[in-house]
Amino acid sequence: MKWMIRTLQTVWHSLILARFFTRSFFIRLFNRNPIKRRWLEIKNTTLTARHFLRAFNVKLKIKNPERLQELKDQNYLLVGNHASFLDIFVLGAVENFVFITSVDMSETPVLGDIIRKAGCLYTDRKKKVSLPDEIKRFTETLRSGFKLVLFPEQSGTDGSHVKKFRRSLFQVAVDAACTVVPVCIRYLRLDGKPVTEKNRSVICWYKGVNFLKYYWNLMARRLEAELSFLDPVEYDPERNRGELAELVYEQVRDTFNSYDTQLST
C-alpha cells in the first residue's frame, strides 16, 4: 500500500516542482533588478514550501509566533538548528526568508537547481579566504530589507542534539546592526509515534545519507513538527560575534534539550 501512496506523492511533488520552476523562469525572464528578483524568488519559495508541507503530510505547530510578528517590518537574522531536509519547508512556509546555504548544496543535482532559483545566498565552508566577501554580501542583503536564515552547526547532525555553532557568519548581524532571532526546530512525532533514536533516521539527513533513498523514505509518512521562536537578541555594539553566537546557541540548545527532559519524566 505504501508504494502506491509514494507513487502518488511522487506525482504530486513533481507538479509542485513544475510550478516552482515555471514561476522561476518568468521571474528571471522579466526582472533584471536583483533585489526585486530576489523578493519574487523567495515569495515563490514560500508558496512552494507550503505546498510541500501538505505533500509531505507535515503538521506544524508554532510556539511564540508573536515574536516574528513584532519584527515583521524589520530585517533580522534567524538562527536555528538543522537536521532535516524538511527544515527548509518548515521555516520557508512561515515567512519570506533568504536561506544561507553551502556551495556544495548548490552543486547537488536537481536539489542544487532548486536552491539556485530560490533566492538563496551561498557560503563556501572549505575556503576561508572567501569569508570576508561572503560576510559583506550577506550584510548588504540584510541591509536591503531581507530576513536571512542561518544554520550554523559545525557539521551535519543526526538530530540527537544541537552541535556548537560556527561563529564566523554571526559577524553579518554585527555588521548590519540587526536583531538575531533564535529558533528551535523539533520533530515530535512520526506516524503517530514519538521521535526517538529508533526512528529519527527517517527524518534526519546529513553527510553520507543517500538523498534519493532518504527522500523516498520520507514519503507516505505523517509528521508533527514544532517551531519555537525564542527571545530575540537585539544588537549591542559591545557584543562581538563570538558572544552573540554563544547566546543564541544556549537558547536553541536548552529548548531542544527540554523536550528530551519532558519525554523522560
List its traits:
alpha/beta; 11 helices; 17% strand; 8-stranded mixed sheet; globular; single chain
Structure description:
It is built from eleven helices and eight strands. It is α/β, with parallel strands linked by helices. It has a single domain, classed as Glycerol-3-phosphate (1)-acyltransferase. Strands 1, 2, 3, 4, 5, 6, 7 and 8 form an eight-stranded mixed sheet that branches. A hairpin with a 2-residue loop joins β6 and β7. α1 (2-30) runs antiparallel to α2.
Secondary structure layout plus pairing:
Blueprint: H1 2-30, H2 34-55, E1 58-63, H3 66-69, E2 76-80, H4 87-92, E3 97-102, H5 103-106, H6 111-116, E4 121-123, H7 131-143, E5 147-150, H8 171-176, E6 179-190, E7 193-194, H9 200-203, H10 211-218, E8 223-229, H11 241-264
Parallel strand pairs: 1-8, 2-5, 2-6, 3-4, 3-5
Antiparallel strand pairs: 6-7, 6-8
Biggest sheet, open or closed, and with what strands and sense? Answer: 8 strands, mixed
CATH fold call: Glycerol-3-phosphate (1)-acyltransferase
**Proportion of beta-strand residues:** 15-25%
What is the CATH class designation? Answer: Alpha Beta
**Whole-angstrom Rg:** 18 Å
**Element pattern in H and E:** HHEHEHEHHEHEHEEHHEH
| Helical content (DSSP H or I, runs of 4+) | 40-55%
**N→C terminal distance:** 37 Å
Indicate the mean pLDDT.
Answer: 91
* Approximate shape: globular
